[in-house]
Amino acid sequence: NLHRDQEAAASFREFVRLFPSGSFVDRARYYLAWIDRRQGKNQAALDQLSAILNDYPETGLRDAIYFQRGQAYFAMGDFAAAIGEFERLIDQYPESSYAGRSLLKIGESYFNARDYLRAKLIYLRAAQTYPATSVEEKARYGLLLLAYKQRQDDYLETEAAEFIKKFPRSAYLSPLVLMVADIYRQHHQWGELQSLMSMVISGDYPDEVKMDALYQMISLFREQKNEREVQRWCQKMVKQFPGGKYQCDCNLIFARQAYKQGEYGKVLDLLAGSPAICTDKHLQRQSLLLQAKAAEKMNRLGAAEGFYKKLLSEEYQDSISYQALDALGALKERLHQYDQAEFFYQQAARNPKPELAAAAQYRRSFVLQAAGKKQAAIQQYLRLPYLFPKQETWIIKALSQAAALYEQDNRTTAAEKTYRKLLQYHLSPGQREKVKKSLAALGKEG
């Protein structure tokens, strides 16, 4: 970590100061450059490494220095310079422990530079030069990444199966399984997807990979809207990997099912530990929203309000925040706390989705009306067509309410004008007939 790096750097600098002519000074300076590179100070690292080569032309660290220089250039996005350093290392020190890794980094550099043909040739060379090693494993994975990037789906499917057999404990299995699953999804090869995931789940593979495979099965049945299978696979997940990285996902799935069945207390029980279990912030927020809704259904309005306000305290501008604002408006309206209801609806009317924003604006107007603030209500109803000109459903409702309020105050001219404005919209036959009757009652013709 940063603190330990700083302590180490201080020790190496002190060593260089005390023993400027020592036989290990080049190594101490090398480690100082290595620390700089690890901390993202790539240019400083390059400068230090070049200085070591100049000051100690006979240093035994030349291969390591070339490798670190290549790494620094790679991190800076200068892939041509990085390739030059790695190639120099391989040419001058073909037996170096850095040679295989340098070959892989050349492949990565070409990959990132989008020179996919050269990347492929380098990865093939690495796999053939270093068989049955971690270099071959990484090179084979690089070839699979290239196939995925270039949409060579048949190659990816075939070679992925070989990779899984050859490297059953590989750290690359999880991303590889996800890549193949994505290919099967895109081609709607549901049977092949299930077969691959089942093989991984039942095989001798790392737990991380099995969890990902189980989650792929859950996702598949969610897409197919097969709730029973979703529940079944989630039950398998939590039984096999209790407290695992998908525990939060499954708890949320179980809670949503309980909510549908009206088991609101169960929802709260299932999601009570979400803050500790959920590492994904979006899942945490989904859990809080469902807890709020369940508490509200149980008439635990104080708890519901607390959950909604916690969502808002996190200062996110997402759909969940707008749902919370809308729900708080409805809750305060239910309690006849109209000033607070209007405030929350006003905030909800900023929703980037126009249909939801228009609905919130309408409800804001309605609570003003319920609070006896008739003139303010009319003003907000009449603002709706200007704020949301394409939301005809809410415009028709708002103008109808405004016209009715004008009638209550015997403001005939304003009522007539509003009714005539209504006729400009796509009214249903029933709505049009109702407007015409209202105009007739005012002594006007529709």
Describe this structure in words.
The protein is 77% helix and 0% strand. By secondary structure, it is an all-alpha fold. Among the domains are: 83 residues; 69 residues, Alpha Horseshoe (Serine Threonine Protein Phosphatase 5, Tetratricopeptide repeat), CATH 1.25.40. Helix 4 runs parallel beside helix 6.
Write the SSE topology.
Blueprint (H helix, E strand, L loop, with lengths): L1 H17 L6 H14 L3 H14 L6 H14 L3 H14 L6 H14 L3 H14 L4 H16 L3 H14 L6 H14 L3 H13 L4 H17 L3 H14 L6 H14 L3 H8 L2 H4 L3 H17 L3 H13 L5 H16 L3 H11 L5 H17 L3 H14 L4 H17 L3 H11 L6 H13 L5
Question: What letter string, H or E per element, gives the SSE order?
Answer: HHHHHHHHHHHHHHHHHHHHHHHHH
Average pLDDT works out at: 92
Query: What's the helical proportion of residues?
Result: over 70%
Low-confidence stretches: none
Biggest β-sheet, characterized? none
Strand fraction = under 5%
The rough form would be described as: elongated
* Backbone CA Rg: 33 Å
Number of helices in the DSSP assignment: 25
Distance between the termini: 77 Å
Helix/strand/pairing category: mainly alpha
